[in-house]
Amino acid sequence: MVWVKVDADQMEETTNSIFKEIKHLNKSVHSSGTYEELNDIVKKFKMTIPLISALKADSMRPRHWKELTRLCGVDFNVAGNPKLAVQLDLEPHKFRDEITEITDQASKEAKMEKQLIMLDETWVMVQFQFTTHKGGGPGKPSLISMLDEDFEKLEEHQQLVNGMLANKCVS
User: Fold this and answer.
1) % residues pLDDT > 70 (the chain)
2) Which residues, including other chains, have CB under 8 Å from residue 92's CB and lie 6 or more apart?
3) Which pTM does this prediction carry?
């Protein structure tokens, strides 16, 4: 299966079904090496599915794939649209913490990107009024004002930007 066509939800459903079937096998096979190996494989795969889902998120950018490669020493790059088997051969469950950290960061960055677009769209439309200060004239400073609702938006958006700046994703 090609990476872009992977349906993590369907994979999870199928894996859970297989896991239940394995558990309901005759008790006499539970002590066999084959049963234990199969059970172990399915458990590892179950741990991998949330990672696959996170890696498939639209928020994952090339910089995040590069960071994963750097941290894990394994090329998780999906630019060439590899098969799912290639990604699974890299044993992503071994890099659970690194993958989780980077996918969380990608998600937060995507949220901030949307917020920045919203800020840009809002403030490009704001009308500022310039009035001459008392005793002013040509070459003297003007007073800048805006509607009360725009001023309230300014305060709200300042808090939003301060929150972004406090985020560890911003460097």
Assistant:
1) 91
2) 48, 51, 52, 55, 76, 99
3) 0.73
